[in-house]
Amino acid sequence: MATPTKNDAIIIVGAGAFGLSTALALAERGYVNVTVFDKQLYDETQYSYFKGSDAASADINKIVRAAYGGQTIYQELSFEGIEGWKAWNDELASGRVVPPGMSSAETIFYPHGNLVMTDTEELLPFERDTIANMERSGNKDTQLIAGDARHEEIARQKGLAFAMDPFRRRARGQRHTALLDSTGGTVLADKACRFALCKARSLGVKFVFGPAAGAFLSLNRTPGSINRILGITTQDGKVHTAAFTIIACGCWTPTLLPQLDGLCEATAGSVVIFKIPKSSPLYDRLDPENFPSWQWNMRRGAEGGLYGFPRDSNGLLKIGYRGTKYTNPKVQSDGKERSVPITRWSKSEPLTTIPVQAMKTIDRFVDSHLPELRAEGINVETTRACWYTDSYDNHLVIDRVPDTEGLMVATGGSGHAFKYMPCIGKWIVDVMERVDLNRPAIKAWQWRSLKANEQPFNVLMEGSKGNRALGNVSLVHGIKGQERARL
Ligand SMILES: Cc1cc2nc3c(=O)[nH]c(=O)nc-3n(C[C@H](O)[C@H](O)[C@H](O)COP(=O)(O)OP(=O)(O)OC[C@H]3O[C@@H](n4cnc5c(N)ncnc54)[C@H](O)[C@@H]3O)c2cc1C
């Protein structure tokens, strides 16, 4: 199977974290004819959900952490990503790459730590594994246990004392079982995408945006062969020829490439956003300089699975629910059901619809961890379903499509891939160039299927009868401020 030369045309479909990172890596490696297509008008919407974007990467903020339990491939990948985030901060500050509408005084990555909390008496095995693996890999004292005097002192020396108990649990006499990953923090997702877009353009990558010229319609195949891909046709009917095509369409990928059946599926997470007024004492307390990103009861089923952030520069405080991974199965043209993301362009549900279970879990968390929000009468500003691309084993999917030449897929973020944005493109290009394919990470990302005796991390394709299908769960519609009764 041929590998493209530096002058060959390469097409990337999708300008989210995977597509942008791939474009950057190709340009940095000397590929001179790279074009990225995306159906969204990102130059206008600036990757902001509030300005009309809708994609996993088009978000306010994302967690960065290197704490990965026993999964050292992601621990190491995260460290690579964190170095990249720091370099992007420096590059922005230097003025070398400043996206339109942004200034060199802005920050993309806040290294303010990521705090994992559980309502158990002890840290869970996952957190214990993280500590052990960090120590083994020369990263001792990066993981700090709340309440451990030595660790509290290390946090203080690192300027992260605020991050050990940001919800002031101990002051309220509540149990606080938590582990701070002092290497982690928050990345501002929309700004990161704008930075990567600007940087890729400056290196010569071409971008075609919009629902006609930028939207993928079909793959072009060599006449007489169904297995050799020669580029794509876009919605406007134009044929774009390429030696190599990379599909990186996030949650849309499984419906565009049905070969992913059983390997990847689009699932919904729920996001609730509060708006903190500048006049509130919470405004300063929740400033990203004073507050970490956090997770709560991530491995504790439907009643847990929350994560959150400091407020952003508009006062928006985002809390996400991932305790249940919802689906939206719909019959496709081949007669099979696949989960289809509900986005701002969908006609089926109001955009702000989320499951009652998600709202209840967030309500309970706010009551117990941030009662000041209630005391000040700060209500929900908006809600949003946000679509992930889950693989059955939670590993990424970065590989050539089997039995097909000239076509690769980069997807399967499974809720944790944004943090790799500065570096994942290099790995994707390595796979394209077939560089060192025996590395454990690359092997984990290969095309695969669930083995007969394998226990999936994510159960996929349960269909419309499954109890995670949105059609089978209670939903809350159109939540806005005071209009919502407490559930
Ligand atoms: C709610 C939520 C919270 C998350 N939190 C975190 C976190 O805290 N930390 C972390 O590391 N990761 C997190 N993730 C995961 C991370 O956001 C994703 O792994 C990553 O953003 C996926 O990027 P992507 O490029 O695969 O997909 P996307 O960002 O969805 O991009 C896909 C692109 O493909 C385009 N596209 C689709 N169809 C077509 C078509 N037919 N033609 C042209 N273009 C098309 C879309 O317009 C879109 O721009 C989270 C994900 C979600 C949903």
Automatic annotation (TrEMBL):
InterPro entries: FAD-dep_OxRdtase (IPR006076), FAD/NAD-bd_sf (IPR036188), MTOX (IPR045170). GO terms for molecular function: flavin adenine dinucleotide binding; sarcosine oxidase activity. The keyword Flavoprotein applies. Pfam families: DAO. Belongs to the MSOX/MTOX family. Its cofactor is FAD. It comes from Thyridium curvatum. Residues 10-430 form the FAD dependent oxidoreductase domain. This is FAD dependent oxidoreductase domain-containing protein. Keywords: FAD, Flavoprotein, Oxidoreductase. PANTHER family: FAD DEPENDENT OXIDOREDUCTASE DOMAIN-CONTAINING PROTEIN, PEROXISOMAL SARCOSINE OXIDASE.
